[in-house]
Structures are given as structure tokens and as C-alpha cells.
């Protein structure tokens, strides 16, 4: 998977952001091509989530530029990010626990009737359709998502990202709270979305998941980029060395 | 959001759940909120208790009479209208302590406007005075609410502090506005909005309102069923639909009969130049109709619009709401502005009922309004609450108040009882929620 010629789907150049004098992200550049899965690795506090939140509109970068399909993009809030077909599955899932699955799936993008009222029935029907595809065992359409299991909540969050035809998908530790079967389900979904030509940023701690799912891996440490590697060219020990000691293997760039 | 728990799609909820207990089966099939039933039971208990106490101890059961219940409906209106707005404020994890004082200051503004200012310009008794006065009052409330909302959302001051400040500032303003003097009487058309003499719609009007409401209930049931059929969702069994329709219409027509059973007193008959032994019904009071209209509008706002959906989302998880692209600050400002507008409407009713504007109007109302919302099931933790619950909560609060007056408890005892009931109600609600979880 080194055939990354052509215009990247996403290019983040020289991004910096600091909180109260601490540089959370320090001049980091990464890119992502269609049909590619790029893993973002590093210790807790390395700046992975912060970097990616600049792309999803949750944070505003202090410096640097973002290009989508080669054109400069201004992303200053989550609504802007959605406008560029960037969808995010947050580690916390970002669900309103008191609302049901359909209300969460369409939150901020409700379907409305001709009179301008929210069309709950239509939204539930759409939710049933997409859930039948993603998680056929899902039945709890009419209860608040607080009553769902970790895996069910995760499938609501994933459905939200997939339903709106994302081109760029950000997944922040999507399998952290899941059992083996559900983790497998997410892995299959990632492969499927990849085949459809989406670009996926995957923040992940599990080195085996990275080796299995990612084409390239970007390692961060203390807010800086240690290096980027083609996953096929290195061993998991190489990547662990980058994460733990910040040691850049020969094949990294 | 419109449908309630159910199991596998093809089976009907009744057969899918199939609890053996007939009461449970009835509740599952009709999808009635059990919490609502609990509140209604509590209300009936309070009413029956006061009536019995009066009958046994004082030899005069005065509570369950058309006259008292009619008065109760009027007294509830202003608190209930504010409570519907307080639901939104509390759902989004805020509080508004200033509503009582906003009533005071908008009441004074409207008093000055309709007694001192507008008659000078338009002439005394001009037909448009009451309209301009109401508009000004509601606008004033909205602007004060918006100011509070702005300080909370865009300046990051906690709502408790902003509205605690507002509680003092606006009460002071109400005093300064007319040097502490009471303004009375108000415009005669304006006074009707308080439900005083003539401020009711009579027997025929009440029947029309009641029949329209019944038609509304039936339309809602039919439309709801049509939606479920269209999307192939589980339907309620037909007998449950019919039972719901019958209960709804019976409750509406029963209240019409009740309101019509209270005749105008002799003094008013004399003023209207009617024979003194004529039976002329009060019918619904105008403030009650305003309360019902507000209740319906707020229910639609909360359950059928994006605005309402966002209110719940912010209450459930403010961070998730912001990440979903909801402008949570602007929402907060709008919610407080709406609370202010509703307070303006409540001020119209309160000062019209008093037929005057005083600087003490609405004192302690904020506590009754918050209590009504909380008794009605609004969770102070945020994210949960209903409009009908708040209105019922206001009715419970007012029933306690006027019931104790009726049986001759003095003000000190009244406060003790109301305070204890508030704490007990929230405790029972906690137990209920823990059990149904």
C-alpha cells in the first residue's frame, strides 16, 4: 500500500495547538488517501485525539492548514466538518444518553416533515434500516441509549457516522469498550468502508489491530510526530519502539 | 420518541410483553405513562383528603365543589405557565430564580403603561390599550430573559448566580418604577385576562372548546395509528386506542361540565342586569384557556421540533450536543428568553387577576414554579422532564395551598406542609425511577 500518488483526501500541514502554554500538538503533518486506513498511535497524552479533534471541528488549531481534496478547508466547528463529509466516532461515543437511538443518529440533522416538525417515525424507520445492516441483533429502538450495552451504543455511534455518507471517517478507539465478537464486527466494517473508498483515521492502542487494519501508521509522542511507517514494511516491535522510546526505524519517514 | 418500549417488530406489544397482571397488560397496551397515573392519584388523594377533613372537622367539605375547583384552575394558571418554561431551563441543567421578580417588574411596567402612558396618547379606555400592554409586558419579559441567557451562555456566569442577582435587581426595579406605589385599577379589557368578573367564556363557549379538544384527541389517535401503519411499527390494540380516546374525551367533557356547574354570583348577575335567580355558568376562565394554549404550544415545541430535541440533547450530554453541531450557547440564550416571555404572560394574568400592579407581585413565585416543575418529574440532573408534568405539578402545589386555606390552616403551617411535600415528592420520584430502571 505504498501507491499513494494523487491528491490526498486529507492533508493536515504543520498543525499546532496548545492549552495553557502546553503544546498538545506541535507542528504535526499527516495525510490520508481514499481507501486508506491510517493508524494514529502513541501514549495517552501524546496528542492523537487533540490533533484529530482539529479535523472534526471540536477544537480549533492555533496554527497550520487543513486541505481536503487539495483545497484549503476552514473547519471551525463540528458543523463545518460535517459539511466536508468528515464524520467522527468519539471515544466517549458522544451520545445523548436520555434520547433513543434514532434521535441520536439524527442529532443535529433531524428529518423534518413538510410542516417543519421532526419526523420521528421516518427517522426510526431509517434507523431500523441501517441497524439491520450494521448490527442485525439490535432491537432496542424505543429506549434511551443509556439502557443499551456498550456494543449497542457503539453501533449507534457507528451508524451515525456511516449513515450520512462520510468520505472521511475518524474513529477514536472504536473497540475499546467492546467484546471479541463486536470487535470483529467493527474490523469487518472498517474493511468494508475501505473498499467503498473512504479514508479512515484510526486512533488505536492495540498494536495487533493496527497491524491488521491499517495501511500506514503515524506515531506521536509528546505532541510531536515521531514518524510514519508503511505497516507492511515493519514489525510490531518496530512500531512499539517508536511509541515507547520515540525511536525512528530506518523505513519510517 | 413517540413510541414506547416494545420487543420484536412483528409482534404487537401486548402479545410480546404479555404480562399476566391485567393492570400491567392494560398499561402496556395503552402505553400510558405510569408516572402520570401516580401524579393523578396523588392529586385525587390531596383533593379527597381536604374535602373529607373539611367535612369531618369543620362540618363543611368545601374542596370538591365546582366553585373551589374553578378558583383552583384560575389560581394555577400563572404558576403553571411559568413552570412549562422552567422545565426547559432545568432540563438543560440550569435554574431560574428570577421569575418572581420579573413578574414584579413587568407587572409594574404594564401598570404604568396602561394607566399612565397609553390613555394619555390614545384616550382612556381605547380598545388597543390591552393589546399594546400585553405585547410590551411579554417583550419586556423576553428581553430580561435574553439578558440573563446572554450572561449565562456567552459570559460563562452560572445561571444560579445570574438569576439570583436578577431576583434582587428586578424586585428593586419594580419598587423604583413607581416609587413603591400600587397602580389600580387596570384597563377593563386587560382585567378580563385574569379571570375576574366577566373573565370567562360561559357555558356555550366552554362546550365549543371541549368539543374541539375532543376532536383534537381523536385526530391525534388516528394520526398516530396511521404513522405506525405506514412504517410497519407495532400498533396498539384497537381496544386500547378506543379506551384512550374514551378516557381523554370523558376527562375533557367532565371538566366542561364542572366549569359550567359554577354559576355567576348574584352581584355579577345584578351588574349584568339579569334576574337574581338565573343560573348563568362561568365556564372556563380566560387565564385557564391561556394556560391550556401555552401547554399545548410548549408540548409541541418540546416533542415535535428540533428546538425541543436539542433542549433534551443538551440536558442529556452537553458535549455530545455541541459535537453534533448544536450551538449550545445560542440555545441557552433562547431558552432563557422563552422563560422570560412565559413570565411576561404570567405577569399579565397575575396583575389582571389582582386588577392592579404592585411591586410585590410574584414574590416567592420562583420557588413555587421550580417546585411545580420538580414535582412534575423534571430532573435537576438534567435531560428529563415533561410539560404536562409541570402543569400537573403546579396544580398539586396550588391544591395544597388553597386546600389548607380552605380548612383554616394558617400561613406558617402551610409553608411547613408545602416544604415537606416538595421533599417527599422528589424522594418518591427517586424511588420510582430506581425501580423502573
From TrEMBL, chain A:
CDD domains according to UniProt: ABC_Carb_Monos_I
Range of residues in the leader sequence: none
GO cellular component assignments? plasma membrane
Q: One Pfam annotation, family name?
A: ABC_tran
Q: Which InterPro entries match?
A: AAA+_ATPase (IPR003593), ABC_carbohydrate_import_ATPase (IPR050107), ABC_transporter-like_ATP-bd (IPR003439), P-loop_NTPase (IPR027417)
Q: Which UniProt keywords apply?
A: ATP-binding, Cell membrane, Membrane, Nucleotide-binding, Repeat, Sugar transport, Translocase, Transport
| The protein's name in its UniProt record | Sugar ABC transporter ATP-binding protein
Q: Which organism is it from?
A: Pseudotabrizicola alkalilacus
